[in-house]
Amino acid sequence: MNRQIIYVIASIGLFLSLWEVFTVTAESLHINLFVPRASSMFYELLRLVKGEAPVGANSYFHILQSLRRLLSGVLLGSVIGLVIGIVMGLRERAEDFFESWNWVFATVPAVMWAYIFILVIGANEVTAIGVLAAVTYPQMAFRVSRGIKVVRTDLVEMGKAFNATLPLLLSEVYIPQILPHVFSGVRYSLALGIKIIAIAELVGLSNGIGFMMQYWWDQRNIAPLLAWGSLLVFLGLFFEFIVFRSLERRMFKWVR
Amino acid sequence: MGALEQITSEKYSIELINITKKFSSVNGGELKVIDNLTVKFREGSLSVVIGPSGCGKSTILNMIAGIIGVDEGKILVNGIDIHSNPNYKKTIGIGYVFQQPRLLEWRTLRENIIFALKAIGSTPKEKWNAIAEYYLKLVGLEGFSNYYPLQVSGGMQQRAAIARAFAINPRILLMDEPFSHLDEITAETLRNELIKIWTIEGKHKTIVFVTHDLREAVYLADEIFMLTPRPAHLFKHYVIDIPHEQRSVESEELFEAFSNISKDFHKMIKGGVNTF
Lengths: 256, 276
Description:
Structural class of chain B: alpha/beta
Strand content of chain A: under 5%
Shape of chain A: globular
Distance between the termini of chain A: 23 Å
Number of strands of chain A: 0
Number of helices of chain A: 10
Oligomer: heterodimer
Distance between the termini of chain B: 18 Å
Structural class of chain A: mainly alpha
Number of strands of chain B: 11
Radius of gyration of chain A: 22 Å
Largest sheet of chain A: none
Largest sheet of chain B: 7 strands, mixed
Strand content of chain B: 15-25%
Largest interface: A-B, 19 and 28 residues
Helix content of chain A: over 70%
Strand order of the largest sheet of chain B: 1-11-10-4-9-8-7
Order of helices and strands of chain B: EEEEHEEHEHHHEHEHEEH
Helix content of chain B: 25-40%
């Protein structure tokens, strides 16, 4: 097993153990912390793995709903950000035009976007995806535009000397060089998206991980609420350690 | 003048006519790099442009390649005015070997050659792999086609860059001090290989080779164009009338030519700009 994964598991294990010891000690001293034991949360997590859910078909239905919205929103935001970022990087006037808008979109809180979308188009799938795209696209645009500016001009010159068209220059010269910036943008967008999707589902949707967290909060049952919430953490870890690391290994194999 | 002769009338592949080129200087003014330069490169020749550092040698190649424009004058490539025919590279084919290999590090050596073939766009896709393999073999890189540039030495990278330039079957090949950053043994090997490949290809290609190394110039050139310090114009033109197969480092004729050109070069530098 990868050494880094062992350290991550050890770190999480240590945290859960301390949590368990702390809550058991508090219970034995009759102190009500309103925090369940780690083992209770773990038990609820096992129920989730088995597919149990009080509403909806099963737990996987909710997980897949959130995952679908998350990926759609981040993909949409990333594509928009990539296009705007490339244009900003290549053309100074485009940068002047988009820069302030990017800041507006980057600084408006996700909850505000959620309310704006709900007011305009109602609480539906498009709202969740739209909120995600609106919040994540500036992250990609900023990174890509900066990336384009540090692209090796000698390679661009080489491409032009060989009569390369702009699409060929983009696909073979620019994009491979800005890939680290794109990866950074998608990573950050996913991390941001995981937080936001819970809010969007909590505010106005009738399924998904965020909705289930709201459901258990309404029941004032904290252990399953934390179990559902922890799924978001697992999603983040899955993307980082399974998806991104293996993609990076494949895409940057040319680095000596 | 021994091996040196004045040029007679020939068919020209590239003609730079009354070229003037200026760049913006750091203090906001203009820096004239080339001043009213007229040079003509004979078809099928290996012409070497020499001159002191910063005199605009690379600028000449960049203007021929269409990377930068001219401020005054015109450039004819195979009789075509390149500024009124921006697609001239598609019909004529211009290969370029830079001082640094300028390979795409995320592409294998074969894919780097395919990039140039894609860019030129005149070769059918199904031939790309075979062409890339052929030219890699020609420059001694057989078996390295799937290596990435960072996995091979600097000399091998420059071989790949030469293969890339030849692979598009250009009628004009521009070479900007391509061996200057290599050790002398590798550079000498590559010079010989350049002549070998050029000969294999039938010496149909016009090569314009820029260098500040007079020995290299004399060893390679059919013709030498010596430029003055900036703003550059043509100082002197030489023809080296010795067949390439007879050239070696021990050749007395070549040494004589080198001595004469070297004397001229030093007189030009000592005598001040444009006064000789």
